[in-house]
Design a protein that fits this description.
Number of helices: 4
Distance between the termini: 69 Å
Structural class: mainly alpha
Helix content: 55-70%
Number of strands: 2
Radius of gyration: 22 Å
Largest sheet: 2 strands, antiparallel
Number of domains: 2
Length: 131
């Protein structure tokens, strides 16, 4: 069995073997939430020390979770600002989606040069034509 799977691969494997994917993922999420609750005071303290504006920053956490033979999740480690370098095609795919999801969550819009140039041209035409 592979040591690292993406969630789609894990779900397919669970579906084939009759394991309730959503139940296992609920337990994994429970471990993650409890971990974050346990360090919340430290995170809030650090946030308060480094910025006055708490809504303009974020942190990315990488959770390494191991499922034992009874599908019990075990927290191996949590990485703060995990490496986004890729050591395999699977890593590259997972981290590319992670970066896209992160940028979407923080509200970054994709830049389209052609659209920008059209909008700029329209604004210039409106300015020249006046009100």
């Amino acid at each position: 069995m592979a040591s690292k799977w993406n969630l789609a691969q894990l779900k397919r494997h669970f579906d084939k073997t009759g394991v309730d994917y959503h139940s296992v993922m609920g337990r994994v999420k429970d471990v993650m939430v409890k971990t974050l609750i346990s360090v919340e005071p430290h995170i809030i303290n650090q946030l308060s020390r480094h910025t006055k504006h708490k809504n303009i920053c974020f942190e990315l956490f990488g959770f390494d979770i191991l499922l034992d033979s009874k599908l019990k999740p075990w927290l191996l480690e949590v990485n703060i600002s995990p490496s986004l370098s890729s050591s395999s095609p699977l890593d590259k795919k997972i981290k590319t989606v992670l970066i896209c999801d992160t940028l979407n969550l923080i509200g970054v819009c994709p830049y389209d040069r052609k659209t920008y140039e059209k909008e700029t041209e329209l604004k210039e035409k409106r300015r020249l034509l006046g009100p």
